[in-house]
Write a structure and sequence with these properties.
Elements (H helix, E strand, L loop, with lengths): L18 H6 L13 H12 L2 H21 L9 H26 L2 H20 L8 H33 L8 H7 L2 H22 L4 H10 L3 H12 L4 H6 L6 H41 L5 H13 L1 H15 L1 H21 L1 H4 L5 H29 L6 H28 L4 H26 L7 H15 L12 H36 L4 H21 L4 H13 L12 H28 L8 H36 L5 H34 L7 H23 L1
Helix pairs in contact: 2-6, 3-4, 3-6, 3-8, 3-9, 4-5, 4-6, 4-18, 5-6, 5-9, 5-10, 6-17, 6-18, 6-22, 7-14, 8-9, 8-13, 8-14, 12-17, 12-18, 12-19, 14-15, 14-17, 15-17, 15-19, 17-18, 18-19, 21-22, 21-27, 23-24, 24-25, 25-26, 26-27
């Protein structure tokens, strides 16, 4: 590996690992397990990485959906902001998801981060397909679709740090010499395959439905996006945490030490990813030119989608070949080779543009263009994710990968603004086609140089070596590495299912009530209905989603009521230790249980499955039961505050044991008071619904948001 004169060997970002470390460190052990069958060794990698097919399909199919919506609603859609927002809003969600899930996958769990992103994909892919505007409003339809696409983007973004990172760590069990290819085949190749399917499906559906039934066609296109993540749900549920993660995870993060160690390398990886996605925008300019030549102005819609399939097929050979090349010569050299050749070919194509972009040479144009796209996949397309997932230590890999991937998406966003400016300022049509590609090709060569001279060598066991190197650095700087590792595996997994369920509900509830407040605020400030509709749609649809996810939860509360009733007096901390708290706990759980029972029945009416004549009576019973449960909880909180005050009066804080007891009481008082605030906020909702008080949606929205955030914070603390 060539060394950079700007980086000395004493610098922690240098990739030199001594022979003593490589041969003698007891912690370095290969995970390759040849006693397992090929399927047993491969399926964790498949389950972790294959979800990126959803990224390719759901991101790319929206282009065809956008075309169809412009055809169906030529005035209301094409002349509205939705024509830009619907296809692009998922991009913003993807950046949020990449950063959020990068953090969660390191601090919490690879498996459950992956499960969360999968569930988000399933829910919002389905909601996107069923988008509906209140009263049949077209503006409401576009607003709902835009909102769902944003949250769908969060799920897509989560697949990058949660899925790709876990896939990279799972490749350690695969055969030495084959690890890079299988990582690529189940990450970037899946994205490219998703591109092809997302282009082919619209063509087939338009042929089936014909252009007279496009309203059904676009919904089916989006609805089919539910199938890929749903098909992986069972496999992902069976996953265990990667062994590397169990062994190397951190519980306390020395942020400044990590930044000092990795900032240079992360900057290089992020810059290459930024340039790759930034340049990719201009590559589409050529496809629009030859498609215009081939199709002409009057081609039917299915033929347009058919040629779009041909265009996306160009990615497949490059991605497939790059998987093997990455194992043969290493990801660093494969990336530099692919992007370097792409840059050279790009300069040639730009120089010959005026000859290629003609009807008589269109066949040659298509072939050369296909080779150009294939080289992009062979190089950075296949290898930038591999580089990002294997050039950092396991303990911070999710965040490292998430930041690099987010920088790539930001690069694409910047490119969509910069390249039109370059094109519009060209002196003539020929230069308008050439100039963007001169810029992109120059950046390709720059990326090749960055990869060759600033990226480390990445071998089959780089993850293990990197973990060893990172541990040594931490030890040399005073960090206790004995605290690393999954010490809390057993208790963590016992609590994950319930905490994940609570956390999901609280996130949805927060968004629901905050949207309720925003809708009220926008109405009070005389904003247009089109500005209000997205938040009304989120409020309605998230409320319905929460109803569905709560089905069966009433049983948990009835069980909790039975346990509280059976608790024996005198057990410290148990409800039975005080008869008042015991019976208030029983009342609270029974109230919640009956509330959820009535609420579950009303779901049939709310979802339109079956209209119920007694739905208003059931809703009233549900609100009364909820009010009863909240009243019991609030009274228990007030009573507990009084008990704690009485206990505090009896202790001597000057005594050592008394001081400890005093701090314990303070912590308990903080917990009780926080819960009491939450209960008081929640009480406004059934009181208003039953007509006992008259509060507007602004007050109710803020109250619901505050109580939801308190619940979310409580659920998060339980996982720490």
């Amino acid at each position: 590996m060539m060394s950079d004169p700007a980086i000395s060997k004493a610098d922690p970002s240098v990739d030199t690992v001594s022979n003593e470390v490589r041969s003698g460190d007891a912690r370095e052990r290969h995970l390759e397990n040849l006693e397992k069958s090929r399927w047993e060794r491969s399926w964790p990698t498949i389950a972790c990485g294959a979800g990126l097919f959803s990224d390719g399909y759901l991101n790319n199919v929206i282009g065809s959906v956008n075309t169809i919506l412009s055809t169906i609603y030529p005035d209301t859609y094409s002349n509205s902001s939705a024509v830009k927002n619907v296809p692009s809003i998922a991009f913003a969600g993807t950046v949020v998801g990449q950063l959020l899930f990068g953090y969660i996958s390191d601090h919490y769990s690879r498996k459950w981060s992956l499960m969360a992103s999968t569930v988000i994909l399933i829910i919002f892919a389905a909601l996107s397909a069923g988008s509906y505007g209140a009263g049949g409003s077209e503006a409401g339809l576009f607003a709902a679709l835009t909102a769902y696409r944003f949250f769908l983007g969060i799920g897509i973004g989560g697949e990058y740090p949660a899925g790709s990172v876990a896939a990279a760590e799972s490749t350690g069990e695969l055969k030495h010499g084959h690890r890079n290819r299988w990582f690529i085949m189940f990450t970037n190749f899946q994205i490219d395959f998703g591109f092809v399917v997302s282009a082919l499906v619209p063509m087939i559906l338009v042929l089936i439905f014909t252009e007279n039934h496009l309203r059904a066609a676009w919904r089916v296109m989006l609805g089919l996006g539910v199938i890929p993540p749903l098909s992986l749900l069972w496999l992902r549920l069976k996953l265990n945490e990667p062994e590397e993660f169990n062994r190397e995870r951190m519980h306390k993060y020395p942020v400044w030490l990590i930044i000092k160690f990795y900032w240079k390398r992360l900057s290089v990886v992020s810059l290459i990813w930024f340039i790759y996605d930034f340049s990719a925008y201009s590559f589409g300019i050529y496809s629009s030119v030859w498609l215009k030549i081939v199709l002409g102005p009057s081609a039917p819609l299915w033929k347009t989608f058919g040629w779009n399939t041909v265009l996306n097929l160009f990615y497949i050979p490059g991605s497939f070949a790059g998987a093997w090349v990455s194992d043969w010569i290493g990801p660093r050299h494969a990336l530099a080779l692919g992007v370097g050749l792409q840059g050279v070919l790009g300069f040639i194509m730009a120089g010959c543009y005026k000859y290629l972009a003609t009807p008589e040479n269109v066949a040659g144009f298509v072939v050369v263009y296909g080779i150009f796209l294939s080289l992009g996949e062979l190089g950075p397309g296949d290898n930038i994710g591999l580089v990002a997932s294997k050039t950092s230590a396991t303990a911070i890999r999710g965040q490292y990968y998430g930041i690099a991937a987010a920088m790539g998406k930001i690069g694409a966003f910047v490119g969509t603004y910069v390249f039109p400016i370059i094109k519009d300022n060209a002196p003539n049509p020929i230069r308008a086609g050439q100039d963007p590609f001169f810029v992109s090709s120059a950046l390709c060569l720059f990326s090749a140089a960055l990869a060759m001279f600033l990226l480390p060598h990445i071998g089959q066991d780089t993850i293990t070596f990197e973990d060893t190197r990172f541990r040594q650095y931490l030890q040399e700087n005073g960090y206790d590495t004995s605290t690393m590792g999954n010490r809390e595996t057993a208790p963590l997994y016992r609590v994950v299912p319930s905490i994940a369920s609570i956390g999901r509900d609280k996130v949805l509830r927060t968004l629901q009530y905050f949207s309720r407040f925003l809708a009220w605020y926008l109405l009070r400030t005389n904003r247009t209905q089109s500005a209000i509709s997205p938040f009304e749609a989120v409020k309605k649809q998230f409320g319905l989603t929460r109803k569905l996810l709560r089905i069966g939860k009433n049983i948990e509360h009835f069980k909790a009521a039975a346990i509280a009733l059976d608790s024996k007096p005198g057990v410290a901390g148990a409800p039975g230790s005080d008869p008042v708290l015991k019976y208030l706990a029983v009342g609270r759980q029974l109230g919640y249980g009956f509330y959820l029972t009535f609420d579950m029945v009303t779901y049939l009416d709310a979802a339109g499955i079956r209209k119920l004549a007694a739905v208003k009576k059931l809703q009233t019973h549900a609100q009364r039961a909820w009010l009863t449960g909240l009243m019991c909880s609030a009274i228990a909180g007030i009573y507990s505050m009084w008990r704690l005050s009485e206990m505090e009066k009896k202790i001597n804080k000057k005594d050592g044991e008394g001081a400890v007891e005093g701090k314990k009481i303070q912590r308990e008082r903080a917990t009780v008071s926080t819960q009491l605030i939450s209960d008081l906020c929640d009480l406004t909702l059934p009181l208003s619904s039953l007509g006992y008080v008259n509060l507007d949606d602004g007050v109710l929205g803020i109250a619901g948001t505050v109580s939801s955030l308190i619940g979310l914070n409580t659920a998060w603390k339980k996982t720490a």
